[in-house]
Amino acid sequence: MRVLVTGSSGFIGSHIVEALRARGHEVRTLDLRSGEDVRDEATVVRCLTGVEAVCHQAAKVGLGVDVSDLPDYASTNVLGTAVLLAAMARTGAGRLVLASSMVVYGEGAYDCGAHGRVRPGPRAEADLAAGRFEPRCPSCAEPLTPGTVDEDAPLDPRNAYADTKLGQEHLASSWARATGGSVVALRYHNVYGPRMPRDTPYAGVAAIFRSSLERGKAPRVFEDGGQRRDFVHVRDVARSNVLALESPGVAGAYNVASGEPHTIEEMARALAKVYGGPDPVVTGGYRLGDVRHIVASPARAAAELGFRASVPFEEGLSEFARIRDRN
Question: What is the 3-state secondary structure (H, E, C) of 93-114?
Fold first, then answer.
C-alpha cells in the first residue's frame, strides 16, 4: 500500500514510517521540518497523488502554556486537518488513520457509592491550591472511585489541545460521510519512548523527568503524585497504526493503551531508580486543565484491530532512561 505519513519526522511519526516500511508498504512523508506544511494545499495535493491511505500525525501537542497558544493550536491541528481532508477528497485517498488522544475524554470514568457512574466537572483552582486533588461527586461531594474509560464515554475536552483533537475527529467523520472514505481515530494515551521531545513546555512527563535526572536534579512531580495514567510505548503505538491501516473493514475510535495504569510518582521513581537517583520530589503544584485520573480500556482495539501492547512498563522505561536522544 502507498501511504502518506504526515508529521513523519516527529516522535511518533518517525516510528510509524519505520513500522510501515518493515511491513513492505511504500511510504511518502510530509513534515514541517523538511519545509512541507500540512496547511499548504499545493504541497499536500502533491504528496497525496497516487496515495491510497494517510497516517495523520502532524499536530501541535501539549496542553498549551497560555491563551496566546490558541491560534497556533487551531491553525496547525484544525486548519491543517481540514486542508488534508479536502486534498484527500480531491486526490481520491480513501483511508485515514488519525492520531487522536485520550484528552478528548476530559476526566476519566468515576463511580460514586450513592450515585453510580458520574462525570465530575473541572477541578476548582481553590481545591487544587488547597491540596484537594481528587474529584468529588457533583451530586453529593463525596470522594469517587476511579474507573476505566472506553470509547463510548462522553467526550469532554478541557484545554486547547483537547479541543483541537476532538475537532480533528469531527472533521474526519464529516470527510468520511461525504466521500465514502473510512477513518480510524486512534486515541493515544501517554506515549513514551525513543525520540520523545524534551526540554520544551510541551514535552511529555517522562521526557521532563528524564531531562531532570540527566542534569542530576530530582524530578518534580505535580500534585501528590497519585495521578493515574496509562503509559504506552511508542513502538506499540506505531504498530497500532499499521494494524489500523491493514484492517480495511474497521472504522471508528480506539483507545491505544497498555491497560496497566501507573501513577505519575511511580513513573518518576522508576526512572530515578535506573539513574541511581535523585529521588523525585512531590511538589503539590498543579496545572489548570490537567485531569486527575484517565485510565483506558484497550478491549475494543484488541478485539477489532488485534492490538495489544507488548512492551512491559519496566522494560520500556529502563530502555527510555538509558537513551540519549538528540532533540
Answer: CCEEEEEEEHHHHCCCCEEECC
Largest CA distance in the chain: 58
Residue 35, phi-psi category: left (phi > 0), alpha (psi -120 to 50), beta (remainder): left
Residue found under cell 508498504: 25
Which of helix, strand or coil describes residue 158? coil
Spatial CA neighbour of 291 closest among 111, 103, 101: 103
Q: Does this model's pTM top 0.90?
A: yes
Is residue 60 packed enough to be buried (19+ CB in 10 Å), middle (13-18) or exposed (0-12)? middle
pLDDT tens sequence across 9-65:
999 999 999 999 999 999 999 999 888 999 999 999 999 999 999 999 999 987 665
Task: Give the pLDDT confidence of 196-250 residue by residue, as tens digits.
Answer: 887 655 558 888 999 999 999 999 999 999 999 999 999 999 999 999 999 988 9
123: nearest Cα among 110, 239, 113: 110
